[in-house]
Write a structure and sequence with these properties.
CATH class of the largest domain: Alpha Beta
Strand order of the largest sheet: 6-5-4-3-1-2-14-13
Number of domains: 2
Number of helices: 18
Structural class: alpha/beta
Distance between the termini: 15 Å
Shape: globular
Mean pLDDT: 89
Strand content: 5-15%
Number of strands: 14
């Protein structure tokens, strides 16, 4: 069977999608991991045969609905798991209504859920309840103790022990605020609920106050210790440049966005955050969490993520908790808050101790198989198509250099150029840990497209 995995944000999704690909390929399926553009080009030109198209959300924008309909018209089967998850939102019904619609769900054959979101979706969309599967997420799989040896130490990891600060501030995103308003308007959010228009403005006012409180706390923590460093981790949609300005002149503070978040979580002595899903990943991994809430938030209702670890509201308590966790760093996996974190996780996230979520998803895919989804692909032809696409892209860059006054794109490079040896090493690590002895072919068809299949 042909399986096409849509990767939107590589540092968030690549490793979990690789896990899916390795397990699926070991069962005889041929798997492509790539961005939307390169997969769609292969499909629209007729180069790629029908298969499972697995995407990262079902946000009911006109663009996405039209793309999915073209896939279906060409014999493809569409499935999805929402990478945002919605599990940190206080009101998961709002998440279900804004990230899904009757039409977007009607198009797909299966929607995989992290846990409680499946119940919420079934209650909001009862006509399509048979399409929802509580599998859990492969992003939780890769944080489990089973896969702890998959993660290598980050290349830029400080020599000293370090405190990890996870940023989640929309006021430091790459695109300006007005572009965010335009994007969610285009996606139809305001059509579905006109009251949503004022909410981003309310949230942004709080964002700036909280941002200042975090900057102030980081500066104080940096000045009041000589024993550990601080790593500030921007959100995938954040630009690191604002943080470099805000925290300028602090030699023991490192602003690092490269690589997946998990290696940083596993090597930190503690995580500080506010309303960030990184706290969930840290809880699964066993890294102590401090939820820092120096201001009361009225408009961003994501308190679930702040239930993990220690909840503090003042800088004095933050300093005391941080120092205590640093002092007991060697005992962090025996921290009493970890058991409590797992209890909190179970409220909204399904974690099967006996089976990976990735295996559950693949089993559903196999139940959807038909003869059309297993037609052979001409991978050489797809390879050369991607070469032509890259050539056109490179020509576009030359044109922009020749005409520098042309407006520049503010979009984020969500999938940076992939390295074939690095991807092969990751695949090999998964195979070794999972005991997969079958020989897999792992090949980069372009700098953003990976093919994994049996030899």
């Amino acid at each position: 069977m042909n399986i096409y995995l849509h990767v939107e944000v590589a540092i968030r999704e690549l490793d979990s999608k690789l896990l899916l690909a390795v397990l699926a390929a070991s069962k005889g399926h041929q798997v492509i991991l790539s961005n939307m553009g390169e997969i769609i080009n292969g499909i629209e030109t007729g180069v790629l045969a029908p298969g499972i198209f697995h995407t990262k959300s079902l946000t009911p924008s006109r663009f996405k609905i039209d793309k999915h309909q073209k896939l279906i018209d060409n014999g493809f089967v569409v499935t999805s798991i929402d990478e945002e998850g919605g599990f940190i939102d206080n009101n998961q019904n709002d998440f279900a209504k804004t990230r899904f619609s009757e039409k977007s769900i009607h198009q797909v054959s299966a929607v995989f859920g992290w846990g409680k979101d499946v119940e919420i979706l079934k209650s909001n969309y009862p006509k399509n309840s048979s399409k929802f599967y509580k599998t859990g997420s492969p992003r939780i799989d890769i944080n489990k103790p089973l896969l702890k040896d998959y993660w290598l130490k980050p290349k830029k990891m400080p020599n000293k022990p370090f405190l990890l600060v996870a940023s989640n501030f929309s006021c430091t995103y790459h695109k300006p605020f007005c572009e965010y308003i335009r994007r969610i308007r285009t996606a139809g959010y305001f059509d579905r609920d006109p009251e949503l228009f004022k909410i981003p403005f309310q949230r942004m006012s709080e964002e700036y106050l909280l941002l200042y409180a975090f900057i102030d706390a980081i500066k104080k923590l940096a000045h009041n210790n000589n024993n550990y460093d601080i790593v500030l981790r921007p959100h995938p949609r954040e630009a690191p440049e604002p943080w470099k300005i805000y925290l300028e002149g602090l030699p023991n503070v490192h602003i690092i966005k490269e690589d997946a978040i998990m290696p940083w979580i596993k090597n930190a002595f503690a995580l500080i955050h506010n309303s960030c899903s990184t706290a969930v990943e840290a809880a699964v991994a066993g890294t102590p969490v401090i939820s820092y809430a120096p201001i009361k938030r009225q408009y961003l209702k994501k308190d679930f993520a702040n239930k993990f670890g220690n909840y503090v509201e003042t800088y004095e308590d933050l300093l005391e908790n941080t120092n205590s966790l640093f002092k007991n760093n060697q005992y962090k996996y025996n921290n009493p808050t970890i058991d409590k974190s797992y209890e909190t996780l179970s409220e909204r996230i399904f974690i099967d101790k006996n089976e990976l979520s990735a295996d559950k998803i693949i089993r559903v895919w196999e139940s959807l198989d038909n003869k059309r989804l297993s037609k052979s692909n001409n991978w050489t032809k797809f390879y050369w198509l991607l070469k032509i696409i890259k050539l056109k892209r490179d020509l576009g860059k030359i044109v922009r250099k020749l005409f520098p006054n042309k407006p520049k794109s503010t979009s984020v490079e969500k999938i940076p150029s992939l390295n074939e040896s690095d991807i092969r090493e990751r695949v090999n690590r998964f195979q070794h840990i999972l005991g997969i002895e079958k020989k897999l072919e792992c090949k980069l068809l372009s700098n953003k497209t990976i093919l994994i299949k049996l030899y």
